[in-house]
């Protein structure tokens, strides 16, 4: 009876729970011990053992402290050719050529253009004490100003007269301001003359009128169409009883 009931009962998958992931013991894929044979094994490396310091006490090579120049390859240097300056030669005192800065080509006149001849002074000659000629200022010639030389013709000579004394008599000539000049309009054409009128004062009024800035013509709409405007009614108090007429009572 029990076996028949069990066979007829429907199986629910939620009631039957299988094993978890940790239940399966699959071979690992890390390392080389117990590696999965169905998977590819990568190469494995290990660190070498530490050597004793006594082994390199007698013979020890330097560490990686070599400085390889730039452009050095395993077949030799690979760079563009480099040149150096030659050593400075000793300057000789017997023959020295001028440097390029000693010339001034900007001071030379333009080529193929006509220019006046240029002259220079000669070098100074050595003074000879045995044959010395007098200088130009050693001669004393008479002056030709005025009638001093009898054999030379002299030009006309003039002298200033003495200053006249200022007379203190009453005979004095009038100055320029003493003459009365006639008005030119008397003898010539007279042009019209205009004058400015008197200043007019504004009338005083006791009535205070608004100024031009008190008006707002931009807010007016009397000459243009405007949309309809609506406003809310006045606020009534809630304590006022409503108006009940006889018609409402009937």
Can you characterise this structure?
The protein has 250 residues and is mostly loops. It has helices at 2-8, 184-187, 246-249; strands at residues 72-73, 76-77. It has a two-stranded antiparallel sheet with strand order 1-2. A hairpin with a 2-residue loop joins strand 1 and strand 2 (76-77). It is flat, with a radius of gyration of 67 Å. The protein starts with a helix and ends with a helix.
Q: What is the structure about, briefly put?
A:
With 250 residues, the protein is largely without helices or strands.
What fraction of the residues are assigned to beta strands by DSSP?
under 5%
**Sheet with most strands:** 2 strands, antiparallel
Number of helices: 3
- SSE sequence, one letter per element: HEEHH
Q: Which of globular, elongated, flat, extended, rod-shaped describes the shape?
A: flat
Overall mean pLDDT: 76
Head-to-tail CA distance between termini: 91 Å
Number of strands: 2
- Helix content range of the residues, please? under 10%
Structural classification? little secondary structure
Major sheet strand order? 1-2
Evaluate the radius of gyration: 67 Å
Low-confidence stretches: none
